[in-house]
Amino acid sequence: MNAQVRFLEQLERYKGDPLFLAERLLTEINEEICRLMNEQGVSRAELARRLGVSRQLITRMLHGNANMTIMTLVKVATALNTRTCIAFTSLAETRPRRRRPAVAAASSPAVVAL
């Protein structure tokens, strides 16, 4: 059995694992925060200043080493002039009907599939 087949079998086993799903969601959220920061030209140091936290905390957060609370997500979104919105979809759906980023502009609510 080749490595790709083994990987896909292992991935299939973990698809319903809450820890795996949480890590995937955290990765999507962090990617969206980084995308917004890049679009707006906001550095980690600037985001830290806006939030009143250390640059190191922002780095840990964006590397997935900090479990962000809803309040943290709201503060980050506000600092980036956006808002947060979370949607739940059926487990039967393999993909959300319309997938949007984890954090989106105030005029465009975001949807993250859990």
Please tell me about this protein's structure:
With 114 residues, this protein is mainly α. The chain has a single domain (3-105), classed as 434 Repressor (Amino-terminal Domain) (Orthogonal Bundle), CATH 1.10.260.40. The protein has helices at 3-14, 18-40, 44-51, 55-62, 70-79, and strands at 82-84, 103-105. Strands 1-2 form a two-stranded antiparallel sheet. Helix 3 packs across helix 4. It is elongated, with a radius of gyration of 16 Å.
Throw out a few tags for this protein.
114 residues, 434 Repressor (Amino-terminal Domain), two-stranded antiparallel sheet, 5 helices, 54% helix, elongated
Outline of the structure:
With 114 residues, this protein is mostly helical.
Helical/strand content category: mainly alpha
Number of strands: 2
CATH topology: 434 Repressor (Amino-terminal Domain)
Helix content: 40-55%
Number of helices: 5
Rg, nearest Å: 16 Å
Which segments are poorly predicted (pLDDT under 50) over 5 or more consecutive residues?
101-114
Biggest sheet details: 2 strands, antiparallel
Can you tell me the number of structural domains?
Answer: 1
> Which CATH-level-2 architecture?
Orthogonal Bundle
